[in-house]
C-alpha cells in the first residue's frame, strides 16, 4: 500500500523527518507512537501528499509520488483520507456538507458546485448512513460549529469514511479525550477499517491504547523509526527509551516550532494571535 | 534624554496639528460672524418661516412617495450590480486564489500571470473606489442621459471597488486549516474555495453588503441632485423654485426612508452574523 | 424521523430564503425602474462613451487648469479637515448623553436615583439621540443648501454641512464605543462614589481613546470624498470645478480634476493610516 524509503524532510533549519523506512501492506492497522515533536504529523502530511520529501522516496499504491502534480496528484490525494488533529472541518457548513466534502477530490468543478447548491437525495442517503455509523444521524442538518468538540471530531471521521479512501490516517484522534471516549473513537476507526478493508494508520500518545487496538506498533523518535514491531512484542523498556527525556524535548520543540514558519498549524496559531491583538477597527455601523 | 525627546516630538506633533487645523479653517473661509451675526439670524428666521406649513396634499405626497421608491430601487439594483463587480475583484484581488496562499505546498503556484491578475484586480478596484460615486454619476449622466441608468452604473463601479477591497480582506481572514484539509483529500482549487473558504466568510460578506446598501440609499438620494431621478431630484426641483415647504416634507420622508432601511438592514445583519 | 430532518433542515435554508428574497427585491426594483439592459449597451451609449473616453485623454495640463486644480485640492482638503474637526466637537458634546451606559442601562444607573431624576435621565438621553439622528440622517447635501442660504456660497457652508452631518455620525459612533467598554472598572469607580462625569472622564475616556481616534480618522477618509462632491451644490473645491467642466463639455480639464480627486483621496487614506499607526 505505502512504501517510504529513506524519507526525510526539513523545515528551514529543523529536521522534522530524518530518515524513515516504512512499508505498510493493504488492510494493515498500524499505530504510530512517539513523544510530541517526533515527526508524526510531518509523516502524515507526507503520506497524504500535502508536503513533499526533501530526501528519499514515497510510493503510494505502487505510484512513485515524486514530481506528480495537477490532476494525478489530486487523484492520488483522494485515495488517502486524513482525520486531522484539530478536526479541521468547515464550521459554517452543515454536518451533511462537511461529510459530502470528503468526495470533493472525485468531482469536477461543475459537479462540486451543483452538489454544493443542492445535494442530490442519493448522496444525502449515503451521508446519512455514514453519519449513523458515527452516531450523528440526528445532527445531519446542523451547523458544524454549533456542535461540541467531540461531535466535530466525529464529523471529521465521518468525512474520512465517506471519502471512501484506501488509506485512512488519523493524527492524534484521542489526544484530548477521557479514557472511555478514547476507546469509543478507536473502536469506531478500527471497525471502519475492518468493515471496508481499509488500511489504517493512527498516531497515539498513549502506548497502552496502541498495544490494545493495533497489531503493529511503530515507534518514532526525532524523525527516525525507533522500532517497528508486532504489538505484543513492544515492551516497557522500549517505550521508556522512546519517551526518555521527553520534558527537555518538549521545551526544545516549542523553540524549534517557532522557527518553522512554514507549518500550517503554526500559521493558524499566528492568525489566532493576530485576531486577538487586532481591535475591531472597521466601524460598519455608521 | 529619551523622555525629553519624546516629549518635544510630541509638542511638535501637536503644534503641527494645530497649524494644519488653523490652515484648514482659513482655507475653508471660515467666518463664524456670518453664522451668528444679526443678518444671518434674520435670514435664518425668514428662511425657517418659509418652511411652514409643510406641503402635505395627496397629489404631492404620491409624487414624492414614488420618488422615494425610485431612490430605494436605484440603490438596490445598484448594490446588486456592485456585487457583480465586487465579487470577481475581491476573489482575484485576494491572495487566496491568485497566489495560492491557503493551498498546500505541492500545489502552490505563484505564477507571473496570476500575480498580474492579482495586481490588476487590486489596481482596478482602487481606481474605481477612489472617485466618489457622485462624481461617477455626473460623468455617466453625460454618457447615458438622465434617469436611473447612470446612477446604477456609478454604484456598480464605485461600490464594486469598495466591495472588492472588503471582500478580499474578508476572504483572507478565512482559516486556512479546513481548506488545506479539503485539498489534502484531493479537492481542486475552485471546489476547495467554494466548499472551504466561501462558507467561512459568506455571512460577513453579506453583512457588509447590507451595510453598503444602506450607504447606497443615502447616496442614491443625492444622485437625484445630478439628474438620476428619485427623491433627490424632487428636492432639487423644489430648492430651485424656493418651495421650502415642499423641501421640508421631502427631507422628512428621506429621513424616514433612511431610518427604515437602517433598521431593516440592522435586523438582517444581526440575523446573518 | 423524516419530519425531524425536515425541521432541522430549516436552519440551513434560512440563508436560502434570505438570498431568494434579496433576489426578488432586486428584480422587483428593476421592473419598477423599467430598466432594460438594452438601454445601457446600445450603439448610441457605446458611441458616446467612446467619444468621452477619447476626449478625456490627454488631460489638460496648462498652468491655468493646474492652478485651479491646486486651489481646489487645498479647498477640498480644508473643508474635510475643518468639517471633521467641527464634527468631532459636536460628537464629543453629544456623546455622553447618547451613551446608554451612562444614562439608561446597566448597573451604573441602577437603583441609584429617585424616579424623577431617572425620568430626567431618560428624557435627556432620548433628546440627545434624536438630535444626533436628525443631524446624521439629513444628508450633507441638504445641510449644505441650508447653510448656503444662511452664509452664502463658498467653502464655509460646505465645512459647516460636513461638520454638522459628521457630528451626528460621531455622536452615534463615539457613544457606541463607550457602551462597548468593559463595565467592571466603571462599576468599581461608581462604587467608590464617583459621579457620572468622573466615570466619563476617568473611566470611559481613557479606555475608549483609541477607538475614538480610529473612528475620527476613518471618518476623515469618508469626509474627503464628501467634500470633493459638495462643490456640485456650490460649496467650492474640486467638485465645483468638476461639475463646471462637465457642464462646459471640457473633458480635458475634467480628466485633470478627476486625477486630482484620485490623488487626494489616496493621499488622505495613506495619511490617515499613518496617523493611526503612530497614535495607536
List the helices and strands and how they pair.
The complex is a heterotrimer of chains A (286), B (273) and C (280).
Chain A: E1 2-11, E2 14-24, E3 29-33, H1 40-47, E4 55-60, E5 63-64, H2 70-77, E6 80-83, H3 95-100, H4 109-117, H5 121-133, H6 149-163, E7 167-171, H7 179-196, E8 199-204, H8 207-213, E9 216-221, E10 224-230, H9 236-243, H10 246-259, H11 264-277
Chain B: H1 2-27, H2 32-36, H3 38-49, H4 58-92, H5 95-98, H6 112-130, H7 133-144, H8 148-172, H9 176-184, H10 189-223, H11 231-240, H12 244-272
Chain C: H1 2-32, H2 37-40, H3 43-56, H4 63-98, H5 100-103, H6 106-109, H7 115-137, H8 140-151, H9 155-179, H10 183-191, H11 196-230, H12 238-247, H13 251-279
Helix pairs in contact in C: 4-7, 4-9, 4-11, 4-12, 4-13, 7-9, 8-9, 9-11, 10-11, 11-13, 12-13
Description:
The complex is a heterotrimer of chains A (286), B (273) and C (280). In chain A, strand 4 and strand 5 (63-64) form a beta hairpin. Chain A starts with a strand and ends in a 9-residue tail after the last helix. Chain A is built from 11 helices and 10 strands. In chain A, helix 5 packs across helix 6 (149-163). With 286 residues, chain A is of the alpha/beta class. The longest helix of chain A has 18 residues, at 179-196. In chain B, helix 4 (58-92) runs antiparallel to helix 6, helix 4 (58-92) crosses helix 12 (244-272) and helix 7 (133-144) crosses helix 8 (148-172). Chain C has helices spanning 2-32, 37-40, 43-56, 63-98, 100-103, 106-109, 115-137, 140-151, 155-179, 183-191, 196-230, 238-247, 251-279. The longest helix of chain C is centred in the first third of the chain and has 36 residues, at 63-98. The model of chain C is unreliable at 1-8 (pLDDT under 50). With 280 residues, chain C is mainly alpha-helical. In chain C, 84% of the residues lie in helices and 0% in strands. Chain C contains 13 helices and no strands.
Low-confidence region ranges of chain C: 1-8
- The stretches of 5 or more residues of chain B where confidence is low (pLDDT under 50) are 101-108
Estimate the helix proportion of chain B, in percent: over 70%
Element-by-element helix/strand order of chain B: HHHHHHHHHHHH
What portion of residues of chain B belong to β-strands?
under 5%
Number of extended strands of chain B: 0
Task: Provide mean pLDDT of chain B, rounded.
Answer: 84
Quickly count the helices of chain B: 12
Shape of chain C: globular
Number of helices of chain C: 13
Describe the main β-sheet of chain C briefly.
none
Q: Output the structural class of chain C.
A: mainly alpha
Oligomer: heterotrimer
Amino acid at each position: 500500500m505505502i512504501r517510504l524509503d529513506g524519507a526525510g524532510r526539513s523545515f528551514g533549519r529543523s529536521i522534522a523527518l530524518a530518515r524513515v523506512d516504512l512499508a505498510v501492506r493493504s488492510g494493515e492497522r498500524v499505530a504510530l507512537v512517539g513523544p510530541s515533536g517526533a515527526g508524526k504529523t510531518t509523516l502524515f502530511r507526507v503520506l497524504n501528499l500535502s508536503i513533499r520529501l526533501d530526501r528519499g522516496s514515497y510510493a503510494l499504491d505502487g505510484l512513485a509520488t515524486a514530481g506528480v502534480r495537477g490532476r494525478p496528484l489530486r487523484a492520488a490525494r483522494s485515495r488517502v483520507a486524513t482525520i486531522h488533529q484539530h478536526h479541521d472541518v468547515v464550521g459554517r457548513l452543515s454536518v451533511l456538507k462537511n461529510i459530502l466534502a470528503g468526495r470533493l477530490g472525485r468531482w469536477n468543478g461543475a459537479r462540486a458546485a451543483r452538489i454544493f447548491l443542492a445535494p442530490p437525495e442519493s448522496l444525502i442517503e449515503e451521508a446519512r448512513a455514514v453519519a449513523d455509523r458515527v452516531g450523528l444521524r440526528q445532527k445531519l442538518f446542523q451547523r458544524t460549529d454549533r456542535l461540541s468538540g467531540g461531535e466535530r471530531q466525529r464529523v471529521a471521521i465521518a468525512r474520512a469514511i465517506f471519502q471512501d479512501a484506501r488509506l485512512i490516517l488519523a493524527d492524534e484522534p484521542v489526544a484530548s479525550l477521557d479514557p472511555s471516549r478514547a476507546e469509543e473513537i478507536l473502536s469506531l476507526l478500527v471497525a471502519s477499517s475492518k468493515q471496508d478493508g481499509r488500511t489504517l494508520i493512527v498516531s497515539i500518545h498513549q502506548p497502552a491504547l496502541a498495544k490494545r487496538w493495533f497489531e503493529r506498533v511503530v515507534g518514532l523518535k526525532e524523525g527516525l523509526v525507533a522500532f517497528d514491531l508486532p504489538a505484543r512484542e513492544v515492551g516497557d523498556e522500549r517505550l521508556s527509551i522512546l519517551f526518555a527525556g521527553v520534558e527537555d524535548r518538549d521545551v526544545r520543540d516549542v523553540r524549534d516550532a517557532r522557527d518553522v514558519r512554514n507549518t500550517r498549524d503554526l500559521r493558524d496559531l499566528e492568525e489566532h494571535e493576530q485576531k486577538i491583538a487586532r481591535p475591531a477597527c472597521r466601524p460598519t455601523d455608521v | 534624554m529619551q523622555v525629553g525627546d519624546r516629549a518635544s516630538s510630541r509638542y511638535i506633533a501637536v503644534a503641527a496639528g494645530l497649524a494644519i487645523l488653523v490652515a484648514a479653517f482659513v482655507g475653508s473661509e471660515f467666518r463664524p460672524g456670518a453664522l451668528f451675526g444679526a443678518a444671518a439670524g434674520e435670514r435664518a428666521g425668514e428662511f425657517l418661516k418659509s418652511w411652514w406649513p409643510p406641503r402635505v396634499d395627496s397629489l404631492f405626497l404620491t409624487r414624492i412617495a414614488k420618488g422615494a421608491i425610485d431612490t430605494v430601487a436605484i440603490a438596490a439594483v445598484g448594490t446588486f450590480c456592485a456585487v457583480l463587480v465586487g465579487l470577481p475583484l475581491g476573489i482575484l484581488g485576494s491572495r487566496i486564489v491568485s497566489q495560492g496562499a491557503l493551498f498546500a505546498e505541492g500545489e502552490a503556484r505563484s505564477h507571473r500571470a496570476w500575480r498580474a491578475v492579482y495586481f490588476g484586480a487590486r489596481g482596478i478596484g482602487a481606481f474605481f473606489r477612489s472617485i466618489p460615486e457622485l462624481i461617477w454619476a455626473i460623468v455617466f449622466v453625460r454618457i447615458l442621459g438622465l434617469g436611473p441608468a447612470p446612477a446604477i452604473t456609478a454604484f456598480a463601479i464605485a461600490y464594486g471597488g469598495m466591495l472588492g477591497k472588503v471582500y478580499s480582506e474578508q476572504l483572507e481572514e478565512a482559516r486556512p486549516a479546513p481548506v488545506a484539509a479539503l485539498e489534502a483529500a484531493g479537492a481542486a482549487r475552485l471546489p476547495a474555495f467554494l466548499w472551504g473558504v466561501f462558507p467561512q466568510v459568506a455571512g460577513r460578506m453579506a453583512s457588509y453588503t447590507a451595510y453598503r446598501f444602506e450607504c447606497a440609499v443615502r447616496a442614491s438620494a443625492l444622485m437625484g441632485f445630478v439628474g438620476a431621478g428619485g427623491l433627490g431630484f424632487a428636492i432639487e426641483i423644489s430648492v430651485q423654485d424656493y418651495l421650502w415647504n415642499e423641501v421640508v416634507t421631502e427631507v422628512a420622508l428621506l429621513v424616514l426612508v433612511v431610518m427604515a432601511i437602517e433598521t431593516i438592514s440592522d435586523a438582517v445583519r444581526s440575523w446573518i452574523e | 424521523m423524516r419530519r425531524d430532518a425536515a425541521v432541522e433542515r430549516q436552519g440551513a435554508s434560512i440563508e436560502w430564503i434570505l438570498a431568494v428574497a434579496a433576489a426578488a427585491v432586486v428584480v422587483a426594483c428593476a421592473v419598477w425602474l423599467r430598466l432594460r439592459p438594452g438601454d445601457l449597451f446600445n450603439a448610441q451609449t457605446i458611441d458616446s462613451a467612446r467619444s468621452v473616453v477619447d476626449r478625456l485623454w490627454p488631460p489638460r495640463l496648462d498652468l491655468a487648469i493646474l492652478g485651479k486644480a491646486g486651489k481646489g485640492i487645498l479647498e477640498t482638503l480644508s473643508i474635510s479637515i475643518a468639517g471633521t474637526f467641527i464634527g468631532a466637537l459636536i460628537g464629543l458634546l453629544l456623546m455622553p448623553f447618547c451613551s446608554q451606559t451612562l444614562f439608561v442601562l446597566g448597573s451604573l444607573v441602577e437603583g441609584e436615583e429617585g424616579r424623577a431624576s431617572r425620568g430626567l435621565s431618560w428624557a435627556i438621553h432620548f433628546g440627545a439621540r434624536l438630535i444626533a439622528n436628525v443631524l446624521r440622517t439629513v444628508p450633507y447635501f441638504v445641510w449644505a443648501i441650508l447653510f448656503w442660504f444662511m452664509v452664502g456660497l463658498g467653502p464655509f457652508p460646505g465645512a459647516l454641512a460636513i461638520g454638522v452631518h459628521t457630528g451626528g455620525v460621531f455622536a452615534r459612533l463615539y457613544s457606541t464605543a463607550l457602551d462597548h467598554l468593559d463595565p467592571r472598572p466603571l462599576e468599581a469607580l461608581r462604587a467608590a462614589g464617583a459621579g457620572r462625569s468622573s466615570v466619563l472622564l476617568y473611566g470611559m475616556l481613557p479606555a475608549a481613546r483609541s477607538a475614538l481616534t480610529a473612528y475620527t480618522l476613518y471618518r476623515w477618509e469618508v469626509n474627503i470624498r464628501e467634500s470633493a462632491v459638495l462643490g456640485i451644490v456650490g460649496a467650492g473645491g474640486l467638485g465645483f470645478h468638476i461639475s463646471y467642466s462637465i457642464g462646459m463639455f471640457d473633458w480635458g480639464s475634467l480628466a485633470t480634476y478627476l486625477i486630482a480627486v484620485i490623488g487626494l483621496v489616496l493621499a488622505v487614506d495613506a495619511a490617515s493610516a499613518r496617523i493611526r499607526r503612530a497614535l495607536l
